[in-house]
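Run log // design_07
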């Protein structure tokens, strides 16, 4: 993000301010270090952009603080050094270009000596043929003996790190990959004999081999330069990031970046501070704070900020229609998350009148799907698909996401074979452009497993659901909403296989995850509570009154979640009311059952057409109860 903010875009005044801030922070950090204070004073007095490599390779405060920030992913420090990092990346790119234009001999292999724990070495062994990326600028040498000197040999006992092993990294640089940016900087180094070669930040390599050399008593780790990581990132994250922030100022971009990578508290603090000094961007700041609220499940707070941003923008002499449209879309998304599809639909249709897009078509489709109006949902998902196929090359992962939406809609219609075809098409599309352990591929496996559940092919379902488990283990934290949804689906498969121990195990896993999400997503938590209620209420398990009591408890907890979420009038809440009513009926508590069915029917009639199967099912149950009453 910092590299993609050229100085021309940042502006001279802000560059001067950024340098001043960096100097102040460095003076404060090294206030008790006389040597570094002298270095900082020299930097302040003499630094020019073309000196970036020289300053970075000298063993001073610049190298120490930037490397520490990159290693620990300290966004605030990186932002403080942003102008210098931009200079350094620019210098490296220019030196690399010079080497190519002058046809200077390029190294085919360079080395780096290091000392690593056995655990870290074994981790690289386990990830042979996988991509790894540097999380900073990578310093290497043409001279293997220099690397050997830094590595040492054998096993070294360190007081701080314990037992560590000598390692030599061999970096192979394919001659046909000009996208790998590096430069020979030995002429700038104080130690010319080291023949230093510096790689740009984020360079990617494939782990080719990890072996132990008995003669040298050193681990040899061979890595081959690759542009696959660049392609993956550019087609997924950077593409999204650039699209999302292309019209924003660099100061806003940093906060947006923090939000995209999930640093919500940092992002909120950043925007709160920015709001005090940046009055020109107040609408963008409010919009961004609302987005953070949305990500954290604070939907009511988000709506307040969105309404405020909308009002402020409308007060401008020439309101930006694009900003107003985005605010309307986000309001729709909040309504959808709160189980209010009619209100969401109103927002999306209003945004569509301002400008059509695949994203809006998909959102309209999601609204109709939440209303169980499957044909209307398909109409808009197919519009989204047509737009995606026009806007994106074949094989783009966004097409795969739209295919997923179509598949889920056919699931809702009960057309499971057709749904399966779309889920497999979506999976294939994603596999063309995304890494094999990407979350979206896991979601496709989950959708396929869910569809096999619907087809009552539970063994096949578990095969795909377990493949999703493997992917999620690699790319998601243990506490993540997608993990909870997946374990719900696995529990469903075991429920219908009547393997109750496994069923309850996975439901409890799902419940544990959803109860520990921060923030709690009450809608998906309500689903698991509902499912547990259904299992305990299932008379095929037992006629134990204790199980009936547990079922009532889970149903009531699910409804409490909807109440707290503001989604008590959602169709999911109506389904829970229906199941709770059937349990009362089984217990011959007909009056309680009748009242709950009336509540369920009232909700269904506000959203569903009169002849919808779920409405008919509730009416039929009411007729049966009238006879009992």
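design_07 sequence
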């Amino acid at each position: 993000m910092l590299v993609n903010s050229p100085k021309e875009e940042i502006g001279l005044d802000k560059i001067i301010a950024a340098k001043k801030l960096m100097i102040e922070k460095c003076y404060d950090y090294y206030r008790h270090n006389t040597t570094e204070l002298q270095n900082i004073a020299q930097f302040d007095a003499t630094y020019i952009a073309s000196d970036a490599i020289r300053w970075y390779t000298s063993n001073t405060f610049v190298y120490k603080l930037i490397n520490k920030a990159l290693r620990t992913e300290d966004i605030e420090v990186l932002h403080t050094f942003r102008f210098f990092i931009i200079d350094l990346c620019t210098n490296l790119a220019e030196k690399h270009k010079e080497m190519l234009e002058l046809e200077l001999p390029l190294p085919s292999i360079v080395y780096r000596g290091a000392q690593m724990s056995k655990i870290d070495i074994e981790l690289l062994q386990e990830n042979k043929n996988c991509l790894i990326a540097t999380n900073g600028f990578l310093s290497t040498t043409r001279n293997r003996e220099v690397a050997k000197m830094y590595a040492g040999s054998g096993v070294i006992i360190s007081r701080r790190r314990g037992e560590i092993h000598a390692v030599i990294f061999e970096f192979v640089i394919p001659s046909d990959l000009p996208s790998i940016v590096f430069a020979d900087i030995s002429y700038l180094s104080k130690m010319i004999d080291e023949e230093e070669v510096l790689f740009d930040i984020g360079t990617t390599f494939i782990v080719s081999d990890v072996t132990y050399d008995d003669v040298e008593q050193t681990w040899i780790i061979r890595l081959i330069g690759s542009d696959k990581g660049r392609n993956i990132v550019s087609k997924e994250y950077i593409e999204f990031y650039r699209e999302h922030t292309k019209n924003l100022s660099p100061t806003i971009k940093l906060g947006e970046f923090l939000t995209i990578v999930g640093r919500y508290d940092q992002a909120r603090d950043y925007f709160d501070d920015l709001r005090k000094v940046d009055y020109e961007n107040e609408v963008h700041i409010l919009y961004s704070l609302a987005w953070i609220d949305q990500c954290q499940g604070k939907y009511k707070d988000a709506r307040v900020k969105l309404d405020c941003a909308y009002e402020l923008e409308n007060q401008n002499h020439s309101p930006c229609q694009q900003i107003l449209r985005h605010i309307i879309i986000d309001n729709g998304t909040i309504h959808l998350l709160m189980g209010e599809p009619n209100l969401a639909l109103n927002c999306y249709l209003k945004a569509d009148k301002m400008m059509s897009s695949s994203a809006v078509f998909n959102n309209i489709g999601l609204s109709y799907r939440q209303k169980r109006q499957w044909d209307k949902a398909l109409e808009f998902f197919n519009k989204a698909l047509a737009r995606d196929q026009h806007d994106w090359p074949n094989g783009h992962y966004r097409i795969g996401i739209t295919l997923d939406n179509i598949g889920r809609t056919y699931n809702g219609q009960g057309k499971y074979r057709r749904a399966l075809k779309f889920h497999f098409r979506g999976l294939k599309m994603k596999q063309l452009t995304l890494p094999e352990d990407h979350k979206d591929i896991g979601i496709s496996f989950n959708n396929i497993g869910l569809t096999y559940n619907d087809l009552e092919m539970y063994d096949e379902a578990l095969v795909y659901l377990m493949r999703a488990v493997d992917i999620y283990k690699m790319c998601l934290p243990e506490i993540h909403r997608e993990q909870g949804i997946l374990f719900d689906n696995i529990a469903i498969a075991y429920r219908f296989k009547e393997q109750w121990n496994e069923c309850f195990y996975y439901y409890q896993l799902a419940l544990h995850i959803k109860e520990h999400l921060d923030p709690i997503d009450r809608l998906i938590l309500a689903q698991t509570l509902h499912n547990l209620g259904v299992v305990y209420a299932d008379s095929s398990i037992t006629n134990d009154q204790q199980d009936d009591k547990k079922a009532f408890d889970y149903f009531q907890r699910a409804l409490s979640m909807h109440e707290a979420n503001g989604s008590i009038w959602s169709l999911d809440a109506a389904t829970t009311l229906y199941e709770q009513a059937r349990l009362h009926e089984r217990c011959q508590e007909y009056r309680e059952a009748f009242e709950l069915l009336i509540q369920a029917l009232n909700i269904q009639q506000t959203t569903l057409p009169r002849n919808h199967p779920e409405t008919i099912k509730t009416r039929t149950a009411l007729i049966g109860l009238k006879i009992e009453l």
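Confidence is low (pLDDT under 50) at residues 231-242.
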